[in-house]
Design goal:
The chain is elongated. The relative contact order is 0.09. It contains 8 helices and 9 strands. It is about 45% helix and about 15% strand. Helix 1 crosses helix 2.
Length: about 200
């Protein structure tokens, strides 16, 4: 126990302020229980802070704003960087990112090539859903989100106002990038987008 505690304390001392910490970071240097107890003790000492169940971070303090607690987007970005995985907004959160809804979802869903998991940050839930490699190879910042939005809504359920918004968004995407992404989507979504872009076209 003490050996694991000493190792973890020294490892955390070398970390950057704001960096995320998982118990699994220290596997091989103690049992799961010993690692969790060490992290709990370091929380009590104020060396680290608990962000969610099984998730900690090194405190980051701004001279004027005080302690900066990682937000949901920060957490997702840091997890992706830390675990070298790809993540992409999906579901209702993709709709929100595109401005198709003003309602901020309390449950943010991301597709990923990493392990599925769910993290609770206060009232906000972050869910990582495993998906196939092809869906994460889409390159367009706009087109990839639009594809997720169409899958969420269902191509057959999209009404005229939303169709116009989606068309306007897609026209902002680089054409070659859009073609690349369409090759990686389903037949239904491809057909919907191709027909959508032909609308109002003389």
């Amino acid at each position: 126990m003490e050996k694991a505690h000493t190792y973890i304390r020294q490892a955390i001392a070398r970390m950057k302020n704001g960096e995320l910490i998982f118990p699994s970071d220290f596997y091989g240097n103690g049992t799961d229980m010993a690692i969790k107890k060490a992290l709990s003790r370091l929380c009590e000492e104020g060396l680290i802070k608990r962000l969610a169940h099984g998730l900690y971070y090194v405190p980051k303090v701004d001279p004027e704003l005080g302690e900066l607690r990682p937000g949901a987007d920060d957490v997702v970005k840091m997890i992706a960087e830390k675990e070298k995985i790809k993540v992409r907004p999906a579901g209702a959160y993709a709709l929100h990112k595109l401005g198709l809804t003003t309602q901020v979802p309390t449950r943010r869903v991301y597709i990923t090539d990493g392990h599925p998991r769910q993290i609770t940050l206060g009232r906000l839930q972050i869910k990582f859903k495993s998906t196939n490699h092809k869906r994460l190879e889409q390159k367009g910042k706009i087109s990839s989100l639009v594809i997720q939005a169409i899958e969420e809504l269902g191509a057959e359920n999209i009404e005229e106002t939303t169709r116009k918004k989606l068309r306007s968004l897609l026209l902002q995407e680089d054409y070659q990038t859009l073609l690349h992404d369409l090759k990686l989507t389903t037949v239904k979504v491809n057909n919907f987008i191709v027909k959508l872009l032909k609308e109002n076209k003389k």
